Amino acid sequence: MSTPAEEYLVPGSTISFNSLPKVSLHDHLDGGLRPATIVELAKRIGLELPSTDPLELGDWFEDSADSGSLPAYLATFDITIAVMQSRENLVRVAREYVTDLADDGVIYGEVRWAPEQHLTGGLSLDEVVEAVQEGIEIGTDDVRASGRSIRIGQLVTAMRHTDRSLEIAELAVRHRENGVVGFDIAGAEAGYPASKHLAAFDYLAKNYFPTTVHAGEGDGLESIRGALFDGRALRLGHGVRIAEDIENERQDDEATYVSLGLLAQWVKDREITLELSPSSNLQTGAVAAWGDELVDHPFDLLYQLGFQVTVNTDNRLMSNTSISRELALLTDAFDYELADHEVFQLNAAAATFLPVEDREDLADAISDGFEALQARSR
Q1: Which of 4, 110, 247, 254 is the most core-located residue (most Cβ within 10 A)?
Q2: What pTM was computed for the model?
Q3: Among 44, 158, 47, 60, which Cα is nearest to 92's?
């Protein structure tokens, strides 16, 4: 059974962020395991852990990830990936992933993960994708049995530092009728530009398969350019460092006036979605140029300028977070109202890799859900 999600109330109302219908675009499967599950699975394979107490282990992940460095942050995944090397364990982790998101009010999510990292137990690439899809479907049935609904699509991910991206792209397309809705590329960003994976991106484009690319997190504007023009990215994984292309020109008592560089203007005008993950961006140092507190995060700047911002968790275990918590933290930092949060969710719905009719239905479900909650709170 999942641990009950911590409840976060919208300031000045009886509405909880948890009850708001939400869309999750950027959430890693291997970054969302329950600490108790890690303890149990590690014991079966004889894997030594920093602690076998779930609460202490959860604290260890959060403390270790709070490093100010993306490579150090990524090192915490050695443990979670180690317990995800069998079909049984992949099914279980994916099943729990779905129910945990539903407990947080998510009605649609895209789960990203790298099949090439789950082969040491003897499974093939196709078998690991099938195992995760089985877990997703069981979890979806669990949610439906509880009187709720959720839909999950897989984002099959290649690792930037390996040479398997074309093979992983072919895998993703091969499973487009078996739950895979898009392709991603992740891992240490600096030194591994999207241009090194042109064969994969060419293949995906020729097969009309959508991509999101991690960029503008561990590296800057050149990485974002590569994601857009080499990777043909429809969304930017994080993309927060697009703010480096925004210059403050002057400020008076009423407003701050800025100018956008060509790249920032392109991202804004083309409505390329930013998969922002506030807590994670602080942990990895992605926003260090602006400060080390959430109020320093350029999220609000990007929102006020009209960029397509969305709110994500990145890795719920490493950041000890949920989308509801991220929404509450942003509200504390920037005084957002319920209408702002509806915009964030509608932005996310429009950016999903679903067919357009399904995106429209999802947007209607979000608006209807917000309206119903507001009516009940009056």
Answers
A1: 110
A2: 0.94
A3: 44
3-state secondary structure of 229: helix
Q: How many CA atoms lie within 13 A of 182 on its CB side?
A: 27
Tens digits of residue pLDDT in 123-169 = 999 999 999 999 999 999 999 999 999 999 999 999 999 999 999 99
Would you state the pLDDT for residue 12? 80
Contact yes or no for 120/114 (Cβ under 8 A) = no
**132 CB-side CA count, 13 A:** 28
CB-CB contact of 373 with 14 (8 Å):
no
Kindly report, residue by residue over 3-17, the tens digit of the pLDDT: 456 888 888 888 899
Q: Which residues are catalytic?
A: 217
**pLDDT at 29 exceeding the cut of 90:** yes
Burial 145-184 (b: 16+ CB within 10 A, else e): eeeeebbbbbbbbbbbeeebbbbbbbbbbebbeebbbbbb
Distance in angstroms (rounded) separating the CA atoms of residues 24 and 275: 9
For the chain, state the CA radius of gyration: 20
Q: What is the rounded distance in angstroms from the CA atom of residue 235 to the CA atom of residue 214?
A: 9
The one-letter amino acid code at 74 reads: L
Angle of helix 198-206 relative to helix 165-174, nearest 10 degrees? 20
Classify domain 17-377 at the CATH topology level. TIM Barrel (3.20.20)
Q: Which of 60, 100, 101 is nearest to 80 (CA)?
A: 60
* β-strand pairing of 246-251 with 256-260: antiparallel
